[in-house]
Design brief:
The chain is of the alpha+beta class. 36% of the residues lie in helices and 11% in strands. The protein has a domain at 39-95. The radius of gyration is 15 Å and the shape is globular. The structure holds zinc ion.
Length: 95
């Protein structure tokens, strides 16, 4: 096995490798979405295994904009799959 030390775009490669569908969301964008949502899953309230979910999936034209991003834990994100659910609006309706 050969390991080549990363060059300038090391960040790009590691993000792409590690996070599948979320590969285009920058670290700073992820952080501000987590902060906005209080570092909690918007569906179940968990505070670990958090992921960034695209409300409108990128394959359907969704953008990497904060308004299209929400915090979900890994489990809720998997369960949601390709459904278009904006949990922030769901929460607002309930409250
Ligand atoms: Zn959850």
């Amino acid at each position: 096995m050969q390991f080549r030390p990363p060059e300038d775009h090391s960040d790009f490669y590691s993000i792409k490798k590690n996070s599948g569908n979320c590969c285009k969301v920058s670290k700073s964008a992820r952080r501000s979405v987590f902060e906005r949502d209080g570092f909690k899953c918007l569906k179940c309230g968990r505070e670990d295994n958090l992921t960034i979910d695209h409300i409108l999936p990128r394959c359907k034209g969704g953008k990497n904009k904060q308004s299209n991003l929400q915090t979900l834990c890994y489990k809720c994100n998997c369960n949601k799959s390709d459904d278009i659910i904006d949990y922030r609006k769901v929460l607002i309706k309930i409250n």
